[in-house]
Protein 1
Amino acid sequence: MASAFEKFNREFWKLMKIDYPFVARIDKAFCASIPKASSYYIGISPIYRKHVTISFQHSSKAWEIGELTINVNIGAEYGSVAADNFNRWRERFKTFGDGFYRLAAAAEVGDKWWCLCPRNPSYSSRDNSRGNYWEPSSYDSEDVVLQECVVAVAAFLDEHLFKKGGFGRHAPQGA
């Protein structure tokens, strides 16, 4: 039986093939943080000339089942992973410097998590210091949750990564 995270990745890939045909699956894991099953190659940025890969990270905490966030790896070479991803990362992301970034934090919109399952009420009332959370209009239908989440994630990627890197409809004229 597939997890909500696995189902999300299947639905995300379906949307990418139709609406964002420049996105591709990766053929092997780059490292533990960029696994094959939940990572996608965006391509070479037409603006910065760097390879860009995203990976979805699910929370490893038992009380955060179904929560995921987006990481982005930028490198001069395909498959390279920067060892130093903590030194001046916000400044480096602004110019697509080589590195491994939490996309929402690097884009300066705070840490962001998408919730495929209802959040645990005993923890959701705590301080949301980890970031902000996206939740669907209702958890009553798994299909609705997946569809709304995939659309929300795609819109976030479009606004904070595809536009910045000049991917797809954001490509510079003549690129």
Protein 2
Amino acid sequence: MHARASAVVLVFAALFAVAWWLTASARSAEAQSRAYGTCTAYDPSHQVDGNSRTGRGGGSIGCEGACTGSCQYSWTARMYNDSGNILAQLSGVDTYCCTTKLTGWTGCAGAYVRDFIFVNYNGVVSSNTESISNHTFC
């Protein structure tokens, strides 16, 4: 009888351990999803000053659910010509979501320019390149 009671206790302990592990795993996945959120690169746009023949490029970064707790992401903004040559580039690490990132002003006289914006948030990458139909002559 004593051995049978020990076996029943072991079975209940094993079932309890499995149930606890499944609950903890589900909570961990839910918390991880909430903590990571998503960041998206969108609206690549540039500014051109026709008088000084300079321009700057970049785009916007929007983060959904990512700004709770520790929110840190890397980003790159570029302005380049239609041949693919990078005219200006700026990269950094930030913690503020929902923002616009622009390169510094640079000479671009005689070039058609477009933009690129890239964001990496916890290994999830998003990028956006401006359409060639939106290029601007500098």
Protein 3
Amino acid sequence: MRRAIIISLYLIIIFAVLMIIFFANRKKREKKSHFTDLPSIEFVSIYKEKLNTDEFWEYDGYVLFLFGTGCSICINEAKDYYNNNSQLQNFQFFMLSPDSLYLINSFAENYKLSTLDNYVFGRINQDSIENVLGIINIPEVYLYNRNKEFLHFLKVANTESIVKTYTKTGSVK
């Protein structure tokens, strides 16, 4: 009898600890997708320049793409973007990753996006990603209009879904 009570108390304590951990992580993972504007994000470009998303103002839309250099989804999307750049050339892509600049540069070169004017590659540290956007998982894609107002969040964003979103929201014709 005494043993059953001890085991029950032990299980209740474990359950309580697990619930605390679950709710603490859940709150941390909540996305701050209620942005009205493209957040000001500092990053280091593949050319080792410190840049900020505030410094770009000449496009019909802005795509904030948080990626991993070894992510298979990201690789497929990079290939798609290069092959369909004629549909995407009016959009500024901020291709940001927490990976090393060497890996980011290799990614940009391997998928030929570094040769295109509307792509900026850079490194952002994981803490900055979480503090600014509340993001834990990569890839994630945020779309903003020409005034840098938030339009839409996409987990996977090929050319078709990006163009469709911008067309549907009336951001481009």
Protein 4
Amino acid sequence: MSKYSKQQNVQQQNAAVEDSIRAEAVYWRSKRWPQALLAVSSERGIGCSRAIIVDLDIDFPGMPRLFGLLLTADETFFRFEIETDPAHERVEGLEDWTDVTQQQNLSRRNPGTGWGKGAIALKVLRELNALPGPPSQDVGGLKLGQKFVATKLDEQSLSPDGPEHELPRNESF
């Protein structure tokens, strides 16, 4: 490997993933969701104003017109594939709508990679919704009922040598 390599450390990699998820979520929060996705989500009782789109691909060749990953306010991840009309207004077929929460990497301590993408998506959701409360599964290693306030990923919490998810008494995450 060259000394001029642009390899990123774990913190930089996690920050890039966080920025990407946040940009996608903020974009779709500021712009109207495709009507077909809005309709399918609403029919399933999902409050779209508090959910985030983690990934959305539109009109990709060989795939349904809309497909991606949605994270609901109750912290459930759904993979979806929706066939629509060309304007993405009418649902012509629902190819996939699957709860994939159990398949997400929700850990904040993955050797060599730091936070899992699912943990980062939950962090972004909580920040955007300003939802203090108990975490889902092992996110952050917090105990049920322990309050947290989402903040930017910090280098200490991402470091393989960092604390085992200990929180300062005057802060919460």
